[in-house]
Amino acid sequence: MSRREKIVLLAAQVLKNTLAQPSAKVLILATNVLLITVLLVGFFNLTEHFDQTHALGSEVREQWENSPDKHPHRMAHYGYLVFREKFPLAFFDYGLDSYLGNVIFLEAHKQNTVNFSEANLSNGLLRFGELSAGMVLQVLVPLLIFFWGYDLISRDREQGTLKILFTQGVTGLELVWGRVLGLFLVSLSLIGIPVLLGFALLFFHPETELIGQSFLQYFVLIFGYLIYFLILCLIAAGVSSKSQSSKASLISLIGCWLMFTLIIPKVAQVVGQAVYPTPSKIEFDTAVEEELIRQGDSHNPNDPHYAALKDSLLRAYGVDSTKQLPFNYSGYVMREGERLSTQTFLNHQKNLVDQYKSQHQVIGLASWLDPFLAIKKLSMGFSGTDYEMYLSFQDQAEAYRYQLAQTMNELQIELISNRVNNSSDPAARLSSDYWEQFPDFHPRFLSADEVSANQLDTLLVLVLWMALLAVFISYLSNRINVF
């Protein structure tokens, strides 16, 4: 019998013995039902969110276009509501979606936060995490793999069959890899139907132009989980081969599970926050406001900065009064004020985002010690529910806000006379046709290439974990104690 045939035979034995247990059948059925349920619930919630955001977005657009004739700067302060959409794979792993805002009000001179997160609108139970397919695969399935794999080799030693296997010509390498393969096949019985269901659900998402990218990211996502399961099977086999008893093996594997899912993630989070602290919202807003005050107030004609700006314009155009300028001076000042305030905010926001990214780097370093952190990051990234996807939306919303404010300022500069006394003057009103010409907000998701670039290190971590464990298991296979 060839080595390959021996490994397949040993794997079939593990699969047969495990599936023959009534408790295993119940657990497999329960896990499949649980995964199917959370996938369906997640998908229905996703489609409901899609319908709501598009309906509300259409209503906001209609109100914007139907606004009466008015001064363009009033329209800039009238503002615009934009809604954060979710990527089609968000039903698989909720990630950070429930803790991040969904609506942001865009207006001139002010950057508002994204509000109305599901966590703020729900009860305190959400702090324990939502049950998604990603959470089940990351936390519950590993526990089942360890439960079925703790006695892969130690049981043979206890029952005295290990010596018989070796005397029949089975090598340690064949034994270990046969057991690993069998346990891996058992783990596949937990996810086969749910994976196919997740693939089918993508066909029913309303955002059809994203279907190609969604399929590609889904395939990579499932591939990552298969590597994760194989890593867990290798750990179970390795611990079982070195443990003196099945009881000791089970205790060790439970300790590994607690270390991977609870201890290391929490420690990494605490260390990241301690080494790279971030200011509170009040501290952040105060710092921005203090710098804006030093720069000057564009609404105050006597402000030193803008008084100097006025003098330079009068000298440049050779006139004595702002009313003699060939453009609307007030609009020019508003445009300059918007530019300065936006640049100030973006500088402070960049520093804040850099701190958050540094915290994430600490967790990324911890993933070299914990495959759970690696698969969690990969799962959120390819599901489109990580911080990078949210940051992309935030940046696009701010760019749209700036475009809106400066477009209204340009209209004021070009179309409104300097001799208009105030914004309520009928001569200061512009036709609502100009509001209709301003484009609607259409955010884009990160492309598959961008997502892959963000997750390349995570994939590398998982592959290295698998490769190193495979080498280590092969090494241990030659040192298995028969007694």
TrEMBL record:
Keyword line: Membrane, Transmembrane, Transmembrane helix
Pfam families named among the record's database cross-references: DUF3526
This protein's record includes keyword Membrane: yes
Superkingdom, taxonomy of origin: Bacteria
Transmembrane regions: 30-47, 131-150, 180-204, 216-239, 245-264, 459-477
Keyword Cell membrane: no
PANTHER family named in the record: ABC TRANSPORTER PERMEASE, ABC TRANSPORTER PERMEASE PROTEIN NOSY-RELATED
Name of the protein in its database record: ABC transporter permease
Source organism of the structure: Algoriphagus aquatilis
